[in-house]
Specification:
Elements: H1 2-41, H2 46-90
């Protein structure tokens, strides 16, 4: 029963992390789109464009990396739970 509950918690955590990462990615994409659109019609220094664009892209990539790492970590937990469950169902050896 505990393993089932742990597996459900891991799946819920996966969903929460993926949704939060997608939210961050969407927000960064929207900001970057607005920023590029505003620069197209105005004369603004290239330094501002480079710095702000780099900041947004780094944030976006950080969120993607975080989401990916969380998925890898939770996959390891799920695999370990599945292995323990299989060992428990097989019973004691010998």
């Amino acid at each position: 029963h505990r393993l089932d509950r742990l597996q459900l918690r891991a799946l819920l955590l996966d969903a929460a992390v993926v949704l939060a990462a997608l939210s961050g990615v969407s927000t960064c994409g929207a900001v970057l789109t607005l920023f590029v659109g505003a620069l197209r019609d105005a004369t603004v220094a290239g330094v501002l464009f480079a710095l702000f664009g780099t900041a947004i892209l780094c944030t976006l990539l950080a969120l993607v990396a975080f989401g990916t790492e969380m998925l890898f970590a939770s996959r390891g937990v799920r695999n370990r739970v599945a292995l323990r469950r299989a060992q428990a169902e097989a019973g004691p050896e010998g």
